[in-house]
Design goal:
This protein has a domain of 90 residues: Lipocalin, CATH 2.40.128. It is built from two helices and nine strands, in the order ααβββββββββ. The chain starts with a helix and ends in a 7-residue tail after the last strand.
Length: 136
């Protein structure tokens, strides 16, 4: 009889209210939560420089150049500021804040670094100029 009472006491204790996770264990929602990647806050330094649609044009100033600095994008008469939101890994994507002949506008661009010496700007290939003399 005594063993039956002990058995019932242990059975009732085991069937008690469910307990929450132990305070020392992480909750399932915290342990599997994916962290979002840090936003890119600066330009890929490999983009910085002067670029031309034809490497042979690097030796003479033309209107087909691109000049990219840490925060500026210049193309012929387009003078643009690169906002942080346009920085992506290995390039630029989005709206640049530009002005031309006193008018402000947004220029949508996609710039992707293809290799250290080539990039694609809105679908057109550009080549790195080693000498910056081609900038008008």
């Amino acid at each position: 009889m005594r063993s039956l009472i002990l058995l019932l006491a242990f059975g009732i204790a085991a069937c008690g209210a469910p307990t929450s996770e132990s305070p020392n264990e992480p909750s399932p929602s915290n342990s599997s939560a994916a962290t979002s990647p840090e936003p890119i806050r600066s330009i890929d330094s490999r983009l910085v420089g002067v670029w031309q649609t034809d490497a042979a044009r690097c030796s003479a100033p033309t209107d087909s150049f691109l000049m990219i600095t840490a925060d500026r994008f210049e193309q012929y008469e387009d003078h643009c500021r690169i906002p942080e939101t346009a920085f992506v890994e290995g390039g630029l994507r989005g709206g640049l804040e530009c002005f031309q002949e006193g008018e402000q506008y947004t220029k949508d661009v996609t710039v992707v670094l293809s290799s250290d010496n080539t990039l694609t700007f809105n679908g057109e290939a550009y080549f790195r100029c080693e000498d910056n003399s081609s900038v008008p």
